Structures are given as structure tokens and as C-alpha cells.
Amino acid sequence: MRSAEPQLELEISAQSNLWQQFTGLFQGSTSYQLYDRQLLWLSILLIGFGLVMVASASLPVGERLTGNPFHFVIRHSVYLVLGTCAAIIVTMIPVAKWQQFSGTLCLLALLLLVVVLFAGHTVNGATRWIKVGPLTLQVAELAKLFFVIYLASYLDRRYDEVRKNWRGFIKALFVLGILTILLLMQPDLGSVIVLGVTAVGMLWIAGAKMIQFISLVITLLVAFVLLIMFEPYRMARVASFMDPWDDPFNSGYQLTQSLMAFGRGDWFGQGLGNSVQKLQYLPEAHTDFILSVIGEELGFMGVLSVIAISFVLVIKALLLGQRALRQKRPFSGYMAQGIGIWFAFQVGVNVGAASGLIPTKGLTLPLLSYGGSSLIITMAAVAILLRIDYEVRTGYRLARSAGEAAQQGPKRVRRKARGGA
């Protein structure tokens, strides 16, 4: 007798044109959506608001450095166009293709991190960029995305090995160790912390043993403390974080200017474009500390709105990963939740650094801050989320991954990942 149970998975032919796949994402009646429109509009809202605030915050520094107040606005607009093109291409790539080339992408990230050490562009004592014509590529941003893809693939393929023994768990962190060494040589401790926290979160979701999880957290905390203690400029940042007003014109200058911006903003701000701190008082006002300008011009309510929208976007990414896991799409689920953890922690670090809750770190506010590589990569990551959502909603499956195929076997033990599989 044929089962009356509805099928969650539909095998769709892979012969459809890439353009047809892309346009299919944006078609459908109001009763049945082929993609998460809320996720798309939240992202567009953050990107559009980011363009407005970059324009507001960068005019004085653009005038001072180049003589053209719209210098950074123009560059940011170019990066937006490039990011949009990248996002459109990404939405047309089946999720299975990312897993197929996950190892290659990870090797590419490692290679570029080595190249940047020898042929990189140095700014403020840090060598993190590769010049590509008039544009610059920050390799650490690529490494974040490619590492999430690689780790999601590894957890899919080695799920039982990660959960049952230390060897599989440690192997999952081997690539993270290499990335950490290369990033610290730039130096870029902020990206190392983001990668570490993302890895911890993904391993927890995959069901790593509590003792493994606790051991990893303790190891990362000890390493973090040692990295601070043995680097004078990091110790200076921690000291200024503890009491920025002790040296407000040297080590505590950036944080005190940021706090003054928040203080001037009060509840509803001084009005768009009326920031005083951006007038060459607050360093990096259009990049790492753009939230301070938002706080000064739009007040507490403006800051709260940005955090709330970012929080909703993160929650949607985590819930999407949970849905994918429930449909026995482990790679898609781990990747979606990895992107959500990455976004959540980076937003938290940026907000904490700008408001004086944690020591200052050179991390941008996703989708908002000026920064070409960061903007393009985060837009591509959002496009991956849209693609995962599309495949989960429609049942599209180009090919089964190794983990998915194993789950179909009669002897496969049902997954008990914390993500909801």
C-alpha cells in the first residue's frame, strides 16, 4: 500500500539553466514562497542603511585624505555593486557544489594567507590586504567563509567520528590551528577569535561530547590570555579598556571619543549628518566604529534598531540551519548555523568594542561598515543562506552528500545533533 505521508524531499533535475534557477528564487505566489523574503529584506535594509551611514561618517576623512569628500562613498558603492553581482552568482550555485569544492576553497584560503605575508599591503602595522588593481582584498574575510564551508563539510562526512572519539574532534580543529598561525602573523587576533568561536559553536551543534567542548573552550581562553599577555600593544588595549579615561589622549583616545559620541546621542540623536566626533576626532569612524556615529546621530533608538535587525537576521540563519538538519541536510544545516554564529559573534564584538564592553578589535559591523572585502563576503554569505532556504523549501537536491547518503542506510543511527536533526 502506498504511504500517504507527504514527501519532504523532491529530486529535481540538475539540467535546468542557471539563470532559470536564479529567477525561480524570486517567483511564486504569496501563499507559497520559494525563498525567505524577510531574510532578503532585512539584509537589504542593513546594506542600504550602511551606505547612508558610511556616507555620513566618511565625508570629513575623505576630504582630509583625498580632497574628495565622496571618495569612500564612491568606493563603498563600487563594493556594493560587486557584492550584489557576487550574491546573484552565489544564489545560482547548488549547495552541493560548495561541499564538493570545500577542500579546494580551504586550501585557497590558506594559500592566500601565505601570499599576503610576503606580498601583502600594510596599513597601521598590519599586513592583511592584497592589492588587486585599485581594490584591496582582505584575505581573512575569505578565510572566515571558506572555513565555515570546510568545517560544515567535515562535520557532515565525519559526524560519528567527531562525536565518538578525540581523534575526529581534533582533526576538525587542525585546519583552524593552521589558519590561526597564519592570521596571527599578520597580525589579526580579531579574525582568529571569530573563527575559534564559530568552530566551537558548530562542534557543539554537531553533538561533540561535553568534555571535548569544555576542553576546547578552556584551551581557547588560555591561548587568548597568553596572546594578550605577550604582546605589548594588546596589553595596552586591555589597560585602556579597563580605564580609558586614565590616558584619554593616547591609549584610551579611540574609546573615549566613541563613548562621547554615544553620550551626545542620548535617546534620539543629534540628527543624521550632525555628528561632531566624525569630524576627525573619532578614528575609523566609517569602519570599525560606525556604530558610534549611528549612536551620536540617531541615538540609542538607532543603535537598538541596528542590533535588533542584526539579531533577527542571525536567528533566521540559525532556524534555517535547524530546518535543514531536520530534513536530513546536514551540510546545509551546519553551514547555515555556522554563518549565523559568525555573524552573531562579529556583531557582538563590534558593538562591545564601540561601547567599551570589551577591548577594541578591528572587526567591522556586518553589512554596515565600510570595507570592501567584508561587505562582499558577508553579502555572499547571505546569498548562501537564501540558496539553502530555497532548497529546503522546494526539496531541490543536486546530489546527496556522503553524510546524507549514509543517513539513508538501514544501519545508520539517527542523528542527535543539538541543531535539531
Radius of gyration: 22 Å
Category from helices, strands and their pairing: mainly alpha
Rounded mean pLDDT is: 82
Give the N-to-C terminal Cα separation: 28 Å
Largest sheet: 3 strands, antiparallel
Order of strands across the biggest sheet? 1-2-3
Total beta strand runs: 3
Estimate the strand proportion. under 5%
Unreliable stretches covering 5 or more consecutive residues = 1-15, 25-31, 410-414
Per the principal axes of the C-alpha atoms, what is the gross shape? globular
Oligomer, anyone? single chain
Q: Helix and strand succession?
A: HHHHHEEEHHHHHHHHHHH
Number of domain units: 2
Work out the helicity level: 55-70%
How many helical stretches?
Answer: 16
GO molecular function: lipid-linked peptidoglycan transporter activity; peptidoglycan glycosyltransferase activity
EC number: 2.4.99.28
Function: Peptidoglycan polymerase that is essential for cell division.
Transmembrane segments: 39-61, 73-93, 105-123, 135-154, 166-183, 189-206, 213-230, 298-319, 339-358, 370-390
Word description of this protein:
This protein is mainly alpha-helical. 67% of the residues lie in helices and 3% in strands. The protein has 16 helices and three strands. The chain has helices at residues 18-24, 37-66, 71-91, 95-100, 102-119, 139-157, 159-164, 166-184, 189-206, 210-229, 232-242, 253-265, 290-326, 330-355, 372-394, 402-407; strands spanning 121-123, 126-132, 135-138. Strands 1-2-3 form a three-stranded antiparallel sheet. A hairpin with a 2-residue loop joins β2 and β3 (135-138). The relative contact order is 0.15. The model is unreliable at 1-15, 25-31 and 410-414 (pLDDT under 50).
